[in-house]
Structures are given as structure tokens and as C-alpha cells.
Design goal:
Keywords: Membrane, Transmembrane, Transmembrane helix. By secondary structure, this protein is an alpha+beta fold. It has helices at residues 34-40, 46-53, 57-70, 75-106, 179-191, 253-263; strands at residues 3-5, 12-14, 122-125, 129-133, 138-139, 148-157, 162-171, 196-208, 211-222, 227-237, 240-249, 267-268. The chain folds into two domains: 3-70, no CATH class; 113-268, Mog1/PsbP, alpha/beta/alpha sandwich (Protein Transport Mog1p, Chain A).
């Protein structure tokens, strides 16, 4: 396996597939990606691209060994470790005294069961798809960029215990959008948001009125609080792309029911 060096943070990312576009460490885009390189090297392959623009696995292993040798245990690190142990013991003691109160304070709000009642739901119609939703989605300011027009609609928040968001993008310079690449990019954008950690998900293909779409389901931790569950559906048509994202507390059964109900209500316009 070859490795690509980021020009921004200087870290290396493993070239596991042809879809590697962003640095695994800082999220910045690589100046040269396989798809663009292949257009100028039609007879090339992923290994040739990696060797030309990155380093081999052996070179990467040698760099890692050199890093380990340099990271010797200095007196400053010993002092930092001792301070950390003291802080840990202090926090551990406080957790025994005030743990239940702290957990109640930081626990994510849950979805009210009344939100699941049928009379609370209404239809929201976007550019490509329409959904049933218990909350009214409101438009946000357009995020237009060169060769792309982007609109977003959102409902809910911490008080409701659930967030429903639809993003619609039109790529003016592209006749078509590749579904798998679009889904990977949206997941990567979620994973690299500030404060997000322990991001994991599974992906499966499904049909929306006979048209293919990708559903991503997983969890992440935001700002080291309670885990958040999400469902993200990505759908493309021509040069247009839509993402429907629903998030809620990971331990909220009512939130899971609401998210499932929203996702199964999707239809094409």
C-alpha cells in the first residue's frame, strides 16, 4: 500500500482506494487525486499513481520508526504525565460524588413520544424528493460557490431532541454526479466537522421509487458529550445531489422511530 502526504498538515494518508480525496488527519483536499491523474495517464493504475505522488509502504514504515525514536520520554513529558494523573484522580473523586448529577446535566434531550403521532406530521417537498416530517423545515441562506448552487433546509434542535436537515446541491459544470463518491464526500464532511470524534457508520444501497440511493447509518460523539445517532440518505439525479440527514441521541428509542419514519417516507417528486 502507498501513502499520500498532505501539503497542509504534512501527515500521510493510506491510499486504500481510488476515492481518496481528503487528508485523513486535517480534512484538506489533496492537490492531485487519482481521478484527475488518470485522465492524463489512461494506461495507469492506482499503484503507479501512489508511487508517483506518494511513498511506498516501506518508506512510510521507516518514517514511523524514526518518529518513535525521536519521541523519547523527556522530563517535560514526565511532568505532564504526573499532572495528568493528579487531574484524573481529582476528576475521578468528583465523579463519585457528583456523577449522577453531571450525567443528568449533559444527557442529550430526547424526542417526545407525542412527536410520533400521525397528526403532527406534514409533507416537505424539496427539489428532487419529498418527505413526511414532524417539524417544519425552514430555509437557510444559500451557499453558492463557483460552479455550484447549494440550498439547505433544517428543523429541530436541542429542545426537540432531533435535527432534520436537507441539503440540495446543483453542480453547474457536471452533467452527472457519481452516487458512491457523493456519499463518501458527505460522510467525510460530517466526520471532519469541529468537535466530532468516534465517527463510524455502515452504508447500504436502497431504491427510492426505483432510483438508487445510499443510506448511511451510524454514530459519533460531539464535543465529548453523549453519542449521537444519525441516518443520512444521499440521492443523485443528473448534476444534482440531495442529502437528507436526521440526528438524535443514540440512546433515544423515540428518536430512532422518528428517524426511521422520516427515511421510509421518502418519494421522488
Amino acid at each position: 500500500m502507498n501513502y499520500m502526504k498532505c501539503q497542509h498538515c504534512t501527515e500521510y494518508s493510506a491510499l486504500k482506494s481510488e476515492y481518496l480525496t481528503f487528508c485523513d488527519h486535517c480534512g484538506k483536499k489533496f492537490p492531485v487525486i487519482y481521478k484527475d491523474w488518470l485522465a492524463h495517464h489512461p494506461d495507469g493504475n492506482l499503484d503507479a499513481f501512489g508511487l508517483e505522488n506518494g511513498i511506498s509502504g516501506e518508506e512510510y514504515a521507516a518514517l514511523e520508526r524514526r518518529k518513535e525514536r525521536k519521541a523519547h520520554f523527556t522530563p517535560r513529558k514526565k511532568a505532564t504525565l504526573a499532572f495528568g494523573i493528579i487531574c484524573f484522580v481529582a476528576v475521578l473523586g468528583l465523579s463519585f460524588l457528583y456523577g449522577p448529577y453531571l450525567m443528568a446535566f449533559f444527557r442529550e434531550p430526547r424526542v417526545s413520544p407525542t412527536l410520533l403521532h400521525a397528526d403532527q406530521w406534514r409533507t416537505f417537498k424539496g427539489h428532487l424528493i419529498r418527505i413526511q416530517t414532524p417539524l417544519s423545515l425552514r430555509p437557510e441562506s444559500p451557499d453558492d460557490r463557483p460552479n455550484m448552487r447549494k440550498k439547505a433546509f433544517q428543523a429541530g434542535g436541542r429542545a426537540e431532541g432531533i435535527v432534520i436537515r436537507m441539503e440540495e446541491s446543483v453542480f453547474l459544470a457536471q452533467a452527472s454526479v457519481v452516487l458512491e463518491e457523493a456519499a463518501q464526500l458527505t460522510a467525510r464532511e460530517m466526520e471532519t466537522r469541529p468537535g466530532v470524534s468516534r465517527f463510524s457508520y455502515t452504508s447500504r444501497e436502497l431504491q427510492v421509487d426505483g432510483q438508487p440511493a445510499l443510506l448511511q447509518q451510524g454514530t459519533y460523539v460531539l464535543q465529548e458529550t453523549s453519542p449521537v445517532a444519525f441516518q443520512s440518505l444521499v440521492f443523485v439525479k443528473g448534476g444534482s445531489q440531495v442529502q437528507l440527514l436526521v440526528t438524535h441521541s443514540a440512546d433515544d428509542p423515540a428518536g430512532k422511530q422518528a428517524a426511521d419514519k422520516i427515511m421510509t417516507s421518502i418519494h421522488m417528486n
